[in-house]
Design brief:
This is MarR family transcriptional regulator. This protein is an alpha/beta fold. Helix content is 40%, strand content 13%. It has one domain. Strands 1-4-2-3 form a four-stranded parallel beta sheet, covered by helices on one side. The longest helix has 14 residues.
Length: 115
Amino acid sequence: MRVKHVYDEATDADGFRVLVDRLWPRGLSKERAALDLWAKDVAPSPQLRRAFHHEGLAWPEFESRYRAELAAGDGLDRLRGEVAGHPVVTLLYASHDAEHNGAVVLRDLLRGSAR
């Protein structure tokens, strides 16, 4: 399970490529994105995304709220089913912060990590 910026070049090493943002990345063509799946339903809610990116919500609080959102729905289980059987899965994000984004939280959940 990997995490990668969606604007970085797609490679064969990426395996199954999944965009995990609710909004399509600006200026990126579908061809260049080279997605296998766009999993909008596992992205943070618009309210949570806005609070984190525009209102200064701290990362630990974002992560906690995002995990709660995922636990309340069935999107994470559907994503698990979609990626099952793929030896390499790359979760793609558009955020400028490589360490603090929804794809990192999803990767940890899909790997079974509890924080």
